[in-house]
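Slide 14.
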Amino acid sequence: MSADTRQERNVAAVHRWIEYYNTDVHRMIDDSYAPDINVVCPGLIDITDRAQFHEIEQSVLDAAPDRRARIENLIAADDHVIIEAVLFGTDTASGTTWETPWCAILTFHDGAIVTDHTYLDRTRWPWVKDQKLDG
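Slide 15: predicted structure.
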């Protein structure tokens, strides 16, 4: 497969990934990520399997069921896609709305995400700022 075709496939996968993130996060995990994964958000999560990912995302949904993401920009190169985005929702504990910018560096293999390194300003989301979700 040519580099251009691979990049196009990965960009299409990112658009499905964000759609599932906003509509069915568990489908996002099962359909977008490879079985062996490394998902890291420094200081917050370090995930190596889908079961753990499902548990953490369920905790996030419980805290912010209306949480959504919007892609502002993306750059694809070879097997990598870099996403600049905004995450927003309502904190269930306080009822306040929040919004935080974030960036993800995704690495793909055969159309599936194998590494996801996400960086966000956790101080702008009340529930997340005091969490460490990976134990």
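Speaker note: The mean pLDDT is 91.
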